[in-house]
Write a structure and sequence with these properties.
The structure is a homodimer.
Chain A: E1 3-8, H1 15-29, E2 32-37, H2 40-47, H3 58-74, H4 90-102, H5 105-118, H6 126-135, H7 140-147, H8 150-165, E3 173-176, E4 179-182, H9 187-194
Parallel strand pairs in A: 1-2
Antiparallel strand pairs in A: 1-3, 3-4
């Protein structure tokens, strides 16, 4: 079975679309999706975009919100503009990293993004984490402790290093072998590439 | 007949794809395309992106070239990476502005981009302009003189002001009423919007 690496940052807006629709799209094409949380902020900071791709540019920011809403509608996805942008995603990314090790990253991540984008329950907040973890029948305090263990922190740093080495500069990104596709609007193209 | 405003900068890489394929795509959906040359550089400079969207970010620049090549291939368009980026497009934009007034902007623009992207004959160069204008049975010297008349310069400035007012920050951009679509990969979405 062909494999598609799905690299994502929890604080990225367009990533909502891919988190919500990539599993179904991958299954329909017989591609196995591997979920790779990483931290985009350090990479953007190194590139000279410490403020992220939108905040310094009001016209681009306004467009992003409108485009995102239109595309969510096109894909039949619920959309409620979150109150806060960007969220603080470090802790969630660590939990996602632990989840990837243990095989529940997909369910956890879908739940985080769904709460953020349909109920304005911010990714990174205590409440968001508690609801997601409880929904997966996990003990939040126990999981949060394990997610902050040195080996998980190191694994997330290492994922971010790999992302940088792959040439990533945004989220969502899809990688097939060394071929990089950036943006939710490249999901279908990446899946086509994986099934060549 | 519904109308789609096609706003573009001659120096933009992704704009090649839209210049090459938008007329056919619009005709297939019964939409009338209006060609609007403008200058992106002043807008990007005001936004704090004086170096353009790619040059300060090597990873993003590398991705853009690869993505562009892949998408040209997907659309069945010839592609030869140009030697120089970005080209100096002021004079070409003035000729394009004159051409828009006189009704030959589409043919002129397609010819400019085709030479740039298939024969490495740079947009903005004397040679590119001479070949395009001669191909349209025009006298290059005469056209270049008229394209630098005060009213054409002013018309291009005014187009750039309109682009800014519409919230544009990149090329190609498509506008239906006040609805903005940015990027060649939004052409189909913009046409859908125009035919709603």
């Amino acid at each position: 079975m062909r494999k598609l690496d799905f690299w994502f940052e929890y604080g990225s807006t367009y990533t909502y679309l891919s988190v919500a629709r990539s599993s179904k799209a991958a299954a329909a094409t017989g591609v196995q999706l591997e979920w790779h949380p990483f931290l985009l902020a350090p990479i953007l900071t190194e590139l000279g975009m410490a403020q992220g791709p939108f905040r310094p540019y009001p016209a681009k920011m306004a467009y992003m919100w409108r485009d995102l809403e239109r595309r969510a509608q096109q894909h039949g996805l619920p959309y409620l503009k979150p109150s806060h942008y960007p969220p603080n995603t470090l802790l969630t990314a660590r939990v996602g990293t632990l989840a990837a090790v243990e095989g529940w990253c997909e369910a956890f991540t879908q739940s985080c993004f769904n709460l953020h984008w349909t109920q304005d329950c911010a990714i990174g907040s205590e409440q968001n984490l508690a609801i997601c973890l409880t929904g997966l029948h996990k003990n939040p305090a126990e999981v949060l402790a394990r997610a902050q263990a040195p080996e998980i922190k190191e694994r997330l740093r290492s994922a971010t290093d790999t992302a940088r080495a792959l040439g990533l500069f945004g989220s969502p990104s899809f990688v097939v072998d060394r071929e990089l596709f950036w943006g939710d609007d490249r999901l279908e193209e990446a899946l086509d590439w994986a099934t060549r």
